[in-house]
Amino acid sequence: MNKEEFNKLKISEQIDFINSELKNNKSITSVCKELGVGRSTIRDRFKKANYSYSKDLNKYTFNEDTKDSLQELIQDKNRCNTSAIYDKNTDLSNNSPIVTVLEKSDKEIQKNLLDLVNNYDVLKEIIELHRRNTSVIKQQIIINLEDTETTTTTLRINKTILEEFNKFCNENKQFKKVDLLSQSLKNFMEQHS
To answer: Could you read off the pLDDT of 55-102 as tens digits, one per residue?
Structure first.
């Protein structure tokens, strides 16, 4: 089976396929490599369906705890007018419980929740990119100085502040030190005069 064929399968069929390969003494890594699908993709995809890998059983099993916490969250009527009904019937193909969320009063909420689930991977990637972006500048630095000549002078300055300023300048090489110092002094004078 190749990646395209695997991805076309229903999630229950994907789980069955992976579990049958694991039953044949293959590892998750080798099965994923044969399919051309990342192991983390399988993990995340199955996790969305409330399945997790059990080392003891060497297969993916349905996680009952996740279902219960989801039911509590959805039934919180203070947040929204939806309720969840969990159908305890089993799917004949893999004997796994089917979780069905029925919305009683607002179809739009149900549609929005399904859109979130369908775009889970994209949203997760956006959140991860945001977490990694530690160099977000809160206020944009604007250099608004007259074009005049510069002069050299000697100033006494707090050593720690100077070290932090030099570090800041090294991280923001798009600015000249003379411009940053001049704009800082100008801003100080404007705010305090």
So the answer is: 888 899 988 765 444 445 454 434 444 444 444 444 444 444 444 444
Sign of CA dihedral 53, 57, 59, 63: negative
pTM here is 0.36
DSSP string, 72-125: HHHT-TTT-S---EEEEEE-TTT--EEEE---SS-HHHHHHHHHHHHTHHHHHH
Bridging pattern class, strands 85-90 and 97-100: antiparallel
CB 15 within 8 A of CB 51: yes
Cα separation, 112 vs 125, in Å, equals 19
Residue 142 has what DSSP assignment? Answer: -
